[in-house]
Write a structure and sequence with these properties.
By secondary structure, the chain is mostly helical. The protein has five helices and two strands, in the order H-E-H-E-H-H-H. It has one domain.
Length: 130
């Protein structure tokens, strides 16, 4: 995993962010190896705030994805991908184009208010199962 994280960070560090403030959150599972943890801690992120979230219990892929994005406002967006250096250009223009478009069936772009509803729904469903 440290090599994958290093490759990902090289891609996003060489991306174009215009002059936007772009925050970075690194989510580490409980099983993250010490090299990956250390790399995450010493990593410099000059484009905004960097935070690291450590999972206390092993969660698996579904939990990792669902819990990775916790929008606090309707202008809080996330990208959960291994990306090319041009990902932010694509993401910015995609948000600008589709945010208020009534025909949203051509792209999988999740907006914060809908994602919070999905998290609440999924949490309720999973609670009912156990």
């Amino acid at each position: 995993r440290p090599m994958s994280l290093s490759r990902l960070m090289r891609s996003i560090n060489s991306s174009i962010y215009f002059s936007d403030d772009v925050h970075l959150t690194i989510n580490l599972d409980r099983s993250a190896d010490p090299v990956t943890v250390k790399f995450s801690q010493i990593l410099k992120w000059p484009f905004g705030q960097k935070s690291i979230r450590y999972r206390i219990q092993q969660g698996g892929l579904i939990n990792a994805v669902v819990e990775s994005y916790n929008p606090t406002t309707n202008d809080d967006y996330a990208i959960i991908l291994e990306v090319s250096p041009f990902y932010y250009i694509w993401a910015k223009y995609t948000v600008l184009k589709y945010r208020y478009d009534t025909n949203r069936n051509l792209v999988a772009l999740f907006f914060p208010e809908i994602w919070r509803e999905f998290q609440h729904y999924l949490s309720s469903r999973l609670t009912d199962l156990f």
